[in-house]
Amino acid sequence: MTGTLVLAGTPIGDVSDAPPRLAEELAAADVVAAEDTRRLRRLTQALGVTPKGRVVSYFEGNESARTPELVEELAGGARVLLVTDAGMPSVSDPGYRLVAAAVERDVRVTAVPGPSAVLTALAVSGLPVDRFCFEGFLPRKAGERLARLREVAGERRTLVYFESPHRLDDTLAAMAEVFGGTRRAAVCRELTKTYEEVRRGELAELAAWAAEGVRGEITVVVEGAPDKSGEEVGAEELVRRVRVREEAGERRKEAIAAVAVEAGVPKRVVFDAVVAAKREGEGGGR
User: Fold this and answer.
1) Helix (H) or strand (E) holding 188
2) How far is CA 49 from the centre of its chain?
3) Where are the alpha helices (DSSP H) in 224-266?
4) Residue 10's beta-bridge partner residues?
5) What angle do CA 206, 208, 210 make, to 5 degrees?
6) CA atoms within 13 A on the CB side of 245
7) pLDDT 10s digits, 66-111
8) Is the pTM here over 0.85, yes or no?
């Protein structure tokens, strides 16, 4: 018989949030794969439990190499417990490769539900939570970050992002540029920890606040795009939006497609407006 892969949620701040079953699984697992073995040691000490099984590291740097080894353990009948530094494994943390490989070998995969920064931030944000999408971390390079944000400029669901404190001001400024400075958002810092803070406001306001410097682990929740299905967007405005995107480095074809989604109109309508504006400009210059 094959073994079982257990994905275990760990506290995102307050260790007392750990589910009782986490201690049971830590004590019973044949192998405990941890993103950081030192943090695991602090967690087990806080929970008063000693793992009986072998403890190995499993982080971004060795994930590819260690996955086959753990899959063989699972295939041989072992119970492997995967824990990351905080929250659920595989959600912007190591784990996806191991889950996919285990599923490929018909190994049972289960989970110990636990705290989640995504759901916690959503719940306290004050923004709509009936529909949302998790976007993880944005690219570090400014151009790539803007391009990723433009992809979801028309997304009506609430958006959730993770971000590092030293990039937060740039990210919020980019969001204000792409989504509009008046779009509502919430910056959730150090959730469930001693210095927890939830800063709510418009993106432009939050970007100015973050420019002063922010510390801690950050989750950003952004209001979805307004419903513009009943609004008429004129040709002049469509052309203006395309030009803004082109000036920011986007190719015309991509800019037209993005504006079409944003305005809720067929791409052909935007294309025709751009072509007509170009012809008028050329005619006016003669």
Assistant:
1) strand 184-189
2) 32
3) 235-247, 252-263
4) 87
5) 65
6) 27
7) 999 999 999 999 999 999 999 999 988 999 999 999 999 999 999 9
8) no
